[in-house]
C-alpha cells in the first residue's frame, strides 16, 4: 500500500514534469530526482520549513502544488 507521503510526492513529480514539458527542456531532466531534493530543502515561502513536512498536513499537498505552479509563472512568495 502506498503511503500518503509517497502519493503526494508522486503527484508533485507529475506537476513538475508537466511544467518542464510546457515551459522548459524536458530532455535529461529527472523530475523525480528534482522533486525529492526540493522536498528536503528549507523554503523561505514556508518559513524555512521542509516542504516534505507539509505532505502530512491537511491542505499541504495543495499548498506545495501552488508554490510550484507560481514558480513557473515567476511569482515567487
Element layout with pairings:
Blueprint: H1 4-23, H2 31-39, H3 60-73
- Rounded average pLDDT: 89
Q: What letter string, H or E per element, gives the SSE order?
A: HHH
Helix content: 55-70%
Q: Look at the helices and sheets and give the structural class.
A: mainly alpha
Euclidean distance between termini CA atoms = 35 Å
> What best-fitting shape do the alpha-carbon axes yield?
globular
Quick tags:
single chain, 77 residues, mainly alpha, 3 helices
Tell me what the structure shows.
This protein is 56% helix and 0% strand. By secondary structure, the chain is mainly α. The mean pLDDT is 89. The protein has three helices and no strands. The chain is globular and about 30 Å long.
Brief rundown of the structure:
The chain has helices at 4-23, 31-39, 60-73. It is an all-alpha fold. It is globular, with a radius of gyration of 12 Å.
